[in-house]
Amino acid sequence: MPHPQTQPDSDAHPAGPLPLHQFLTYRLSRVQAKLNAQATRLLRDTSGITLAQWRVIALIGAAGQTRLSALAREAALDKGLVSRNLKTLIGDGLVSTRTDDSDHRAQILQLTRTGQDIYERTLPIMQARQKRLRDGLSETELESFRRVLDHLEIAAEE
Fold first, then answer.
1. 10-63, pLDDT tens digit by residue?
2. Spatial distance between the Cα atoms of 158 and 155, rounded to a whole number of angstroms
3. What's the pTM value of the predicted model, to 2 decimals?
4. Which DSSP state fits 136?
């Protein structure tokens, strides 16, 4: 594989540099902002929680219980952001915490009954949203899209 500095500019255009609106990063950022705004509205209207709170609730709900470090790693979110959201969720009575018996420095996180109710009520709504986003795309297109995202994620870690 050629050294990144010797590779041709992938954003080069035959008539000169690509306009900003055609950069992959620009397009991805715009799509992400629109998707986040859509999810934020949906979550606010249906559950009264933020997108970051939903991500924490969804990951804990799917796991049953988890540690903060595993949660931050799985969510691919900043540990500080996860901690701040957890503090709010714990304060609101949606998440409970207890000391891990095998490692007294670690905390085990679990949804409370109220948190579980929000998870169970919100998950089908968010799954339906995912289905609407996939509608109109073939399985081949989805697989290609996933491969492209995997490639970009790896490239972003270099």
1. 555 555 677 888 888 999 999 999 999 999 999 999 999 999 999 999 999 999
2. 5
3. 0.78
4. T
